[in-house]
Amino acid sequence: MIALALLAVIGCSRSIDCSDPATALVPASQGQPALTCGQSDEVLAYVELLAARRVAPGDRHLAHKELSERYTQDREATTDWMAKLREHGQALAVGRGLQGAAARAEAVWTAHTGSGPIQEPTAEDLWGVQRRALAVWSSDDEERLALTEADIEAWINYASLCREAQQGGVLRVSVADRVAVYRMVRERFDDGDRETQVALASMGPVWEQVRTAWQLASYEEQQVWVQAAPLPPPMTATSLGYAEALFTGDVVRHASVLQGALGPFRVGRPGATFDP
Q: What is the pTM for the complete model shown?
């Protein structure tokens, strides 16, 4: 009996391979459709849309497990909830430019404050997955905007692109310097007006598109951005010094010129789940 009980526990706790979206997490039963990996992944895609990065593999397993339990308990309510979440994700993903960035930053704030579609009382594990993926570094309750770790990392990458465009070499930020840069960006967000906050929150979701657009742009198109962007003057400064000059400069102009010269960029990644 003990051996059978152990086997049951192992069987219930094992991770289902979701490499095929059609795989059933919860099988069809009594005329009710199955819950597939693909449907569950759409929930995670919503979290990833807000976070502007992938959910960790271990967290994906936690989310699949909780969604399976929730679907088993109430299939109809869970199906309706997933449909509304998908609808919200699709609306956010097609947003472009700084207006789209503002909508995504507000959705991050809503999620972070516990008033979004994923809430702690009804989705404890999924709430933790969302919180870890978002990794919010600062938020403004009055403006209803939030800044994520992915946003800051994308700005560091953008600063490196600026330096490369000036023939100054790749930006090299040490672990210690990264702490200083994170603090710098967070303080700029905390002290900034709405335009500044939206600009700082705009880079995370679009960075991959920015890099691709830069590489595909003609020399003339690249120069439109180079000439219009408020690039820091000293190309030979240290990486930290260059980053400081950029992040204390006109970040609103950086964001708007980038969107105008090489964009406008979509909040959702092309080819991702919420691609129309």
A: 0.89
